[in-house]
């Protein structure tokens, strides 16, 4: 087997060896119906987020691997970074594009099923929330080439199981895949595409990057994250190259001019989503490893679904801000804001107007970022109570809040207009004014703290 350090199973091996407490193998028989999702949500309630491998799914021999992206420590290890430096490590590495290496054969070429042999219902595709319209492939990286330039892309898009060779697909992010399909459709053609299941978490991370030049391949960004060329092999559709170490490849096309109901689906917003671009993928060929693992992302507002979005957005917004504002300290996109809709920026304000500049930049970085709060650098942006204290005590609503109506936004955002998918974006400047004699924050010095701990220790109180 080649490509191990860049494959899902290579990642699992590393976790098993170096962080055995962060991998959980469930050997008891488990149903595809709702059980896998609720196990991971229950672990989260217990404050745990290990990689979970369901080894015994009823009706199949294929194990399901899930929650590979729900753990900061493991993701940081993939980038040789400390957990607290993850957004910065991501930000640095994803700007270092490394050309790919094409190898002659993919590990997924053991078994090839074509024509009538294709039967996607044989895969252990979980049915995740009771509201879902059907079982969903949630860890399918869709790979395709721009019909105009030939540059390829890769990204997750939810895939609703509709039949043996038919999947509903939603391209609601309206990024490259949406545009490639639109360009193909404008020529009256379907878009040849491959669905890749079972890749390394750095592929997941790199595929979420959205601010990069049009000639750059996402695979080159993923190579930057690995710190070496990403190894690809050519599959059988439109010369599309896919990761050589992947588990399963489904070749086919996203149809031109065909729209069918897709959804509802339990989305990362924490709501059932009925919104979709309602496209259709038809599978022509399946290739897989003999002992393939099936990767599934836990949907809904799980860590598995959201943590990487938090990290990539923090990194991307930081990249955009640092170009003009070196005094920006950090950015936080909290999990509970769906890893998407709110960004908190901390800065050492030098001049009035800088928070507004930062907010306009952050709001314009991409469509999902809807609210931005800027705070001074004495506020801990990873502590929402501290952020709310700054909002409560430093915001003068008549001056410090601005609204930008009618901005293109996320289709999946339940507040976006159901026809135009626009929202009103909001900036909140929660920094204290510079030149007024503004109230002084109460502090307790480190020396006082040390003395207090000593007094408490003597009284029998320890942490
Ligand atoms: C687990 C997961 C599922 C996703 N599902 C979808 C989806 O169904 N549709 C969509 O447009 N974007 C979805 N996204 C976001 C896209 O993957 C992301 O915007 C990506 O950068 C799009 O790539 P592209 O530029 O190749 O279109 C999902 C992201 C994650 C992490």
Question: What report would you give on this structure?
Answer:
- The protein is of the alpha+beta class and 463 residues long.
- Among the domains are: 88-299, Pnp Oxidase, Chain A (Roll); 324-429, UbiD C-terminal domain-like, CATH 3.40.1670.10.
- The chain has helices at 8-18, 35-45, 72-78, 86-93, 176-186, 201-207, 218-226, 303-322, 354-365, 384-394, 397-400, 446-458; strands at 23-26, 51-54, 64-66, 101-102, 111-114, 136-137, 140-145, 152-156, 159-163, 166-169, 191-197, 231-234, 241-243, 248-254, 265-266, 272-273, 279-288, 294-296, 328-332, 342-347, 371-376, 401-408, 422-429.
- Strands 5, 6, 7, 8, 9, 10, 11, 14 and 17 form a 9-stranded antiparallel β-sheet that branches. Strands 19-20-21-23-22 form a 5-stranded mixed β-sheet, sandwiched between helices.
- Strand 12 (231-234) and strand 13 form a beta hairpin.
- The termini are far apart.
- The structure holds flavin mononucleotide (FMN).
- The site of flavin mononucleotide has 19 residues, from strand 8 and helix 5.
Strand percent estimate: 15-25%
In whole angstroms, the N-to-C terminal distance is 49 Å
Rg measurement, Å: 23 Å
What would CATH call the class of the domain at 88-299? Mainly Beta
Instruction: Outline the low-pLDDT stretches.
Output: none
Number of strands: 23
CATH topology of the domain at 88-299: Pnp Oxidase, Chain A
Q: Characterize the biggest β-sheet.
A: 9 strands, antiparallel
What is the count of helical runs?
A: 12
Find the structural class using helix and strand composition. Answer: alpha+beta
Assign the CATH superfamily of the domain at 88-299. Answer: Electron Transport, Fmn-binding Protein, Chain A
Ligands: flavin mononucleotide
Rounded mean pLDDT is 96
What is the CATH architecture descriptor of the domain at 88-299? Roll
Task: Give the helix level as a range of percent.
Answer: 25-40%
Shape: globular
């Amino acid at each position: 087997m080649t490509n191990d350090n860049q494959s899902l199973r290579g990642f699992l091996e590393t976790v098993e060896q170096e962080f055995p407490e962060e991998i959980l193998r469930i050997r008891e028989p488990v149903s595809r119906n709702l059980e896998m999702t609720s196990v991971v949500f229950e672990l989260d309630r217990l404050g745990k987020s290990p990689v979970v491998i369901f080894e015994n799914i009823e009706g199949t021999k294929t194990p399901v691997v899930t929650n590979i992206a729900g753990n900061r420590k493991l993701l940081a290890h993939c980038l040789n970074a400390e957990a607290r430096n993850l957004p910065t490590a991501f930000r640095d590495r994803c700007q270092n594009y490394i050309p790919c290496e094409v190898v002659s054969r993919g590990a997924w070429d053991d078994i090839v099923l074509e024509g009538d042999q294709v039967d996607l219902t044989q895969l252990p595709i979980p049915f995740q929330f009771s509201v879902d319209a059907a079982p969903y492939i949630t860890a399918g990286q869709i790979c395709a080439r721009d019909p105009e330039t030939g540059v390829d892309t890769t990204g997750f898009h939810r895939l609703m199981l509709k039949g043996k060779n038919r999947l509903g697909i939603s391209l609601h992010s309206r990024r490259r895949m949406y545009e490639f399909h639109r360009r193909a459709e404008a020529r009256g053609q379907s878009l040849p595409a491959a669905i890749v299941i079972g890749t390394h978490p750095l592929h997941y991370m790199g595929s979420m990057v959205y601010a990069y030049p049009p000639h750059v391949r996402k695979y080159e960004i993923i190579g930057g994250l690995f710190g070496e060329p990403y190894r690809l092999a050519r599959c059988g559709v439109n010369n599309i190259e896919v990761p050589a170490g992947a588990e399963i490849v489904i070749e086919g096309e996203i149809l031109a001019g065909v729209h069918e109901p897709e959804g509802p689906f339990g989305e990362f917003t924490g709501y059932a989503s009925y919104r979709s671009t309602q496209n259709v993928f038809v599978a022509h060929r399946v290739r897989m490893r003999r002992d393939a693992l099936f990767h599934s992302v836990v949907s809904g507002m799980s860590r598995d679904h959201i943590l990487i979005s938090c990290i990539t957005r923090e990194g991307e917004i930081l990249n955009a801000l640092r170009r003009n504002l070196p005094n920006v300290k950090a950015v936080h996109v909290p999990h509970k804001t769906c890893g998407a809709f709110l960004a908190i920026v901390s800065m050492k304000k030098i001049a009035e107007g800088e928070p507004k500049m930062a907010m306009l930049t952050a709001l314009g970085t991409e469509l999902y970022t809807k609210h931005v709060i800027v705070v001074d650098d004495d506020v801990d942006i990873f502590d929402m109570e501290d952020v709310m204290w700054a909002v409560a005590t430093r915001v003068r609503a008549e001056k410090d809040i601005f609204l930008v109506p009618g901005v293109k936004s996320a289709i999946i955002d339940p507040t976006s207009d159901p026809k135009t998918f626009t929202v009103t974006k909001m900036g909140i400047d929660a920094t204290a004014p510079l030149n007024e004699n503004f109230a002084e924050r109460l502090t307790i010095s480190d020396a006082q703290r040390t003395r207090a701990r000593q007094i408490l220790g003597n009284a029998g109180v320890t942490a």
